[in-house]
Write a structure and sequence with these properties.
Elements lengths: L1 H7 L1 H8 L1 H32 L6 H17 L4 H24 L7 H23 L17 E6 L2 E6 H23 L1 H11 L1 H6 L4 H26 L6 H5 L2 H8 L4 H26 L3 H16 L14
Length: 318
């Protein structure tokens, strides 16, 4: 009985007894959720264009952030280093299209999926050769990202808002909204949706798969760069960040692999859910709950809606 009380009642008593801590937890979960949504967006863009889960998206986050920091460490001004890093992601997009996607077109999806594994380890090796394996400090001040915190007095306590978290939430939200509008309202967006529906049908109406793939991988590279800057500003830039990017998998399960709105909603659910779980249920279930709770939420969700909140239900007639 005591265990049931600790699981089902005590956490909610704590929430009501200290609403300022609840607001603090919800805010931190919201920021994490928006950044998870930004990571998931890179996966969604590539999956919509090729039907392949891009396992390399995580290392693209690390590689973009390392390129930015590495160029600046060589004496390149911060914003010039940012522009050059964007150029590197464009070169990567062309290279992936020419050397990986084009030779494997019309191959089974598992072949392309395994190719992204190869791309992952290629970028890991290249990154370690060029930049080394030690953690780097993100050039936060040089990019004029804010530091410090704001405090809000509420319910007899204080809620602290880190300025970098506010900037991260705003920048990530703007990027997600911009990309959503771009792919929903523009000609390229319509072409992307056509490619997602059928490669052969898209080719028959004159849509170039090569151009679409370059655009999509470049967009995913820009998303990876923004993600690397935001997460790197909150911690260090290291190869451990690619593990964080795998949090996009439960986000995609919740939202649907082809839905941009789903990436947003799924990211917020996972971000807020794992923060609440860590703070209120973590002491009961043991430390480290934040590392696995997102996957448990996704597993439970799969039992009731396998296609995700915004995914398409696939019906096959036999």
């Amino acid at each position: 009985m005591d265990l049931l009380y600790k699981i089902f009642i005590d956490p909610f008593v704590q929430m009501g007894g200290a609403p300022d801590l609840l607001i603090q937890t919800l805010w931190e979960g919201l920021v994490s959720g928006v950044l998870y949504a930004l990571i998931a967006l890179g996966f969604v863009l590539i999956f919509k264009a090729s039907g392949v889960f891009n396992f390399a998206q995580g290392i693209m986050v690390v590689f973009a952030a390392l390129t930015l920091v590495g160029l600046h460490s060589k004496g390149v001004p911060a914003f010039l280093a940012l522009a050059l890093t964007i150029g590197v992601m464009l070169v990567l997009a062309f290279g992936v299209e020419r050397l990986m996607l084009r030779p494997l077109v019309n191959q089974p999806d598992i072949i392309l999926f395994m190719a992204t594994f190869g791309l992952t380890y290629f970028l890991i090796g290249l990154g370690e050769i060029i930049f080394g394996g030690e953690p780097k400090v993100m050039i936060t001040s040089e990019l004029y990202l804010p530091k410090g915190a704001l405090e809000w007095k509420v319910f007899g306590g204080f809620v602290s808002f880190q300025k970098i978290d506010i900037a991260a939430a705003i920048i990530a939200s703007l990027m997600v909204a911009t990309l959503a509008v771009f792919f929903q309202k523009t000609r390229i967006g319509r072409a992307l949706r056509a490619v997602a529906d059928s490669h052969k049908a898209a080719l028959s109406v004159g849509i170039s798969l090569e151009q679409i793939w370059v655009i999509v991988w470049f967009a995913a590279g820009i998303v990876a760069l923004a993600t690397g800057i935001m997460w790197g500003a909150r911690s260090d830039v290291s190869f451990a960040l690619q593990i964080l990017a795998l949090k996009a998998l439960p986000v995609l399960i919740l939202g649907g692999f082809t839905s941009i709105p789903g990436a947003i909603v799924g990211g917020i659910i996972i971000g807020v859910g794992e923060k609440l779980g860590e703070f209120y249920w973590g002491p009961l279930l043991g430390s480290g709950i934040e590392s696995w709770l997102a996957y448990m939420i996704a597993l439970v969700f799969l039992l009731f809606r396998p296609q995700g909140l915004f995914g398409e239900r696939i019906i096959e007639r036999i």
